[in-house]
Each structure stands twice: as structure tokens, then as C-alpha cells.
Design brief:
Strand content: 35-45%
Distance between the termini: 6 Å
Order of helices and strands: HEHEEEHEEEE
Number of helices: 3
Largest sheet: 6 strands, mixed
Number of strands: 8
Helix content: 25-40%
Radius of gyration: 16 Å
Structural class: alpha+beta
């Protein structure tokens, strides 16, 4: 039986393995000082923001007549990358998203930890919104994604 912590860690590991240049946080980060906050998301090799944040936003538990609960978690997965217009950073950003999306789709049960990441017609990581944002005072590409995990208890 999978725990929430195990599922969170598996999602983090899967993203990190497929976007090695990024920092992957498995919870929403916060700091009162903006410079300190920005450093949580900066890639040391490039000195640019290049990070993911994974946060569980909802959970539903169903108890059908089969004697065990079905637990469905909805995760919000955010990706940020500093703009570099002369490097066409939007293309790099989209490529990183696609690599992670395909890796998640290829491992639908997180290595056997859960039952599935396919719920109704949503299979794997869904990109809900993508566009420029100011993030910690830096113009960044940003994507807000949804991921469902489902397991039995």
C-alpha cells in the first residue's frame, strides 16, 4: 500500500531523472526574503531559474463495494525557466516539458507503487497553462500542469 510520501517522492524522482538540469521541489517553497527565495530555484551551473514544484492539491477517496478504498490524488506540477530570448528558451522549456510528460506516461504506475496515473481521459501529465510570468522578480516561462495518481488502500 503506497503512502502519500512515497508517491510524492516517486513523482519527484521521475521528474528529476528526466530533467537533470532542474531543481525539483516536492513541496511548495517559501522564504520571506526574495533573494533567498530565488536561490531555491536557481540552477547553479547556469545561474538561471530552472525548477519544478510538486504540490498535492486535492484528494478523493471512494469506497466501492469491493472492500477497499480507491484513493485519487490530484497534483499540481509547476515548471519555471528563466527567459533567454537569444537562446530561444521557449523551445528548451517546451522540450523539457515534453521529455518529462513522456517519461511520466511511460511509467503509468510509478514502478508498481500505484495503480495508475490515467484518470478518465487524462493520461499522465496534463499541461493546463503555459506562458510568461514574473517569478521572484525574474521573467520566466511557466507551465501549470495536473497529474492524477490513483491507488488502493
Amino acid at each position: 500500500m503506497a503512502t502519500l510520501s512515497q508517491i510524492r517522492a516517486a513523482i519527484q524522482a521521475l521528474i528529476a531523472a528526466n530533467d537533470a538540469s532542474s531543481t525539483v521541489h516536492d513541496f511548495e517553497r517559501y522564504a520571506e526574503d526574495e533573494d533567498e527565495f530565488r536561490l531555491m530555484f536557481v540552477d547553479g551551473a547556469t545561474d538561471r531559474i530552472n525548477a519544478w514544484i510538486i504540490r498535492r492539491v486535492s484528494q478523493k477517496v471512494a469506497s466501492p463495494s469491493m472492500g477497499r478504498d480507491i484513493v485519487t490524488n490530484r497534483w499540481q506540477v509547476r515548471k519555471y525557466l528563466s527567459f533567454e530570448d537569444d537562446q530561444a528558451s521557449e523551445k528548451t522549456f517546451d522540450d523539457q516539458l515534453e521529455v518529462v510528460r513522456k517519461a511520466i506516461r511511460a511509467d503509468d504506475d510509478l514502478g508498481g507503487l500505484i495503480d495508475t496515473m490515467t484518470l478518465n481521459e487524462a493520461a499522465g501529465l496534463q499541461v493546463d497553462d503555459s506562458g510568461p510570468v514574473m517569478f521572484s522578480g525574474v521573467l520566466c516561462h511557466s507551465a501549470r500542469c495536473t497529474l492524477f495518481t490513483q491507488h488502493y488502500e
